[in-house]
Amino acid sequence: MRSLEGVAPTKHHAVKTIAVPTTAGTAAEVTINYVITDPEKVRKFVCVDEHDIPAYAVIDPDMMSSMPKGLTASTGMDALTHAIEGYTTKGAWEMTDMMHIEAIRLIAETLRQAVENDPKGRAGMALGSH
Question: Around 15, how many Cα atoms within 13 Å sit in the side-chain half-sphere?
Fold first, then answer.
């Protein structure tokens, strides 16, 4: 597992993967980046593989219901930060601005509810993080 750390030198696409996130944070389940937890060394590390993007992502707010409040809050703030970053980046344009403004609005309206494990809050955060 540790050999996956960093940028992978793969040359072929991986088998089709279905990603099911349990937090509304970075939306890594729809990117080429992923994080692996190494319990032996008590650390997390980042892997990047352009051939390993999941074929499908199932975004189910109910999967987020077992997460502790602190994790829900911190991943929600991460999603908000990504939305603000996307809006303010030099590469932004009208189409992406619309999506990022809506994500900021959704997250601002639903993060507190999600932390309280309200189903509507989780649904709003699931949508806003993507």
Answer: 1
- Strands 6-7 and 43-48, by their bridges, are parallel
19 close to 109: Cβ distance less than 8 angstroms: no
Contact 22, 71 (CB under 8 A): no
The helix or strand, by DSSP H or E, that contains position 48, with its residue range, turns out to be: strand 43-48
Q: Report how far residue 97's alpha carbon sits from residue 104's, in angstroms, rounded to the nearest whole number.
A: 10
- For 47-83, the pLDDT digits (tens) are 999 988 889 999 999 999 999 999 999 999 999 999 9
Closest CA to 22 of 90, 72, 56: 72
Q: Identify the residue whose tokens are 């189910």.
A: 60
Contact 110, 90 (CB under 8 A): no
Distance CA 17, CA 29 (A): 10
